[in-house]
From TrEMBL:
One of its GO terms (molecular function) is ATP hydrolysis activity. SMART domains: AAA. It holds the Pfam family ABC_tran. Residues 6-250 form the ABC transporter domain. InterPro entries: AAA+_ATPase, ABC_carbohydrate_import_ATPase, ABC_transporter-like_ATP-bd, P-loop_NTPase. It comes from the Bacteria. This is Mannose ABC transporter ATP-binding protein /fructose ABC transporter ATP-binding protein /ribose ABC transporter ATP-binding protein. It comes from Thalassococcus halodurans. PANTHER family: CARBOHYDRATE TRANSPORT ATP-BINDING PROTEIN MG119-RELATED (PTHR43790), SUGAR ABC TRANSPORTER ATP-BINDING PROTEIN (PTHR43790:SF8).
Amino acid sequence: MTQPILKARGLTKRYGKVTALDRCDFDLMPGEILAVIGDNGAGKSTLIKALSGAVVPDEGSVELDGKKVDFHSPIDAREAGIETVYQTLAMSPALSIADNMFMGREIIQSGVMGKLFRRLDKAKMQEIAREKLNELGLMTIQNINQAVETLSGGQRQGVAVARAAAFGSKVIILDEPTAALGVKESRRVLELIQDVKSRGIPIILISHNMPHVFEVADRIHVHRLGRRLCVIDPKEHSMSDAVAFMTGAQEPPEHPQAA
Ligand SMILES: Nc1ncnc2c1ncn2[C@@H]1O[C@H](COP(=O)(O)OP(=O)(O)OP(=O)(O)O)[C@@H](O)[C@H]1O
């Protein structure tokens, strides 16, 4: 049987009296798009943070590729191959697309200048950035040296996803990638998500947008009251079923398709 690429068991995170995660289980299978849905305050963000090193759970375990991992910071998770694109994109608007793509992992020139003065290999970074954006069909971005602040919302999101796809070797987490976008831009981002999937990289998609979730997700993790309520197949359930499970208006399916 196929093993999950990312697996969590019994994750618990308390903030004072609030239990944001309550013995939560989670499974992401290789190559899939797994949507995570849930009401406001259900604990989706906390789950994602626990999987990406931004929050250290009080209890529970996380396994990546069958090996136990203990992330203490997002850098730990990144180094292990988990890239997260947050709703509030962590980008520097005044810097170029290439600079943003390589922020925090700049390429240093080989030779003396690099060794002694840590001089950056700008040409190399631009070349790789262009290649990555092209690969993902982001051809609308003409100039790799253009400042990110001059891009549209959808293009910015595209750069963020391309950055994640370029470096996230194992898992990409997207937190509400279409929330701030118009119809056309959302469409482009959804296509991009499918492009990334077709390259074999599994994606966790947190979204409140049910049509978007139902369009791209292979499976849907329904989160409620800090834990996984069930996992549903979007081909077998309607959007109104999903909302009813999520809000507690309807009992979840008897045999939750855990993984
Ligand atoms: N840093 C924090 N300090 C205190 N309480 C927190 C903190 N982060 C989250 N919580 C609480 O934990 C619970 C779960 O929050 P979380 O943000 O994970 O939910 P969510 O499902 O992502 O919600 P939304 O869809 O509204 O973003 C909420 O009750 C929230 O108030």
